[in-house]
Design brief:
The chain has 170 residues and is α+β, with helices and mostly antiparallel strands. It has a seven-stranded mixed sheet. Strand 3 and strand 4 form a beta hairpin. The longest helix has 16 residues. The two termini are 20 Å apart.
């Protein structure tokens, strides 16, 4: 059994650890190994999350178990009534249990309850078909916009998805 709550300032180390472990597992088969290793540094993630979690325009929700172990999180950036989902990670050993779905559903519902006229978007790795299908369940659609990065001869492409305002939450 797991629960969802808004993150506290003290959660930054757990968030960084979840981000580090999950990012590695998620991208190791989708990106060059040297890229994953160069971009995924726990020390840097701890520093980053210590700053990010304190930012007034950032909203982070955490999934935790009955023993208060943090299992996953979702992060949004609020940019004047437009929310960008910047992160959604669940520890690899807890994936497939509905935690990511509950994180997305809880956070979208909370934001929509306080601001019905808002929009959501995110960037997702084009090669991450499972993540794209996951976001489609929540009404996100590909906009045609993409961001390309060249890493040692490998093109890495992120695609932009926006949430259809008429979409119902699953």
């Amino acid at each position: 059994m797991f629960f969802i709550r808004k993150a506290d300032l003290e959660d930054f180390k757990d968030i960084a650890s979840i981000h580090f472990k999950s990012w590695h597992a998620a991208y190791l088969d989708l990106l060059p190994k040297s890229y994953v290793e160069s971009q995924n540094n726990l020390f840097e993630k701890i520093k980053m999350w210590q700053e990010v979690i304190a930012h007034p325009d950032v909203i982070i929700w955490i999934a935790y178990d009955a023993n208060h172990n943090n299992l996953g999180f979702i992060g949004y950036f609020n940019n004047s009534k437009c929310y960008e989902i910047t992160t959604l990670y669940v520890l690899p050993e807890y994936q497939g249990l509905g935690i990511g779905t509950k994180l997305v559903r809880t956070s979208l519902q909370a934001i929509l309850e306080s601001n019905i006229n808002t929009s959501f978007y995110l960037w997702v790795l084009e090669a991450n078909i499972a993540a794209i299908h996951f976001y489609e369940k929540f009404g996100f659609v590909y906009t045609g916009e993409n961001n390309k990065e060249n890493y040692k001869g490998t093109q890495i492409t992120d695609v932009k998805m926006v949430r259809n305002t008429d979409a119902l939450l699953p």
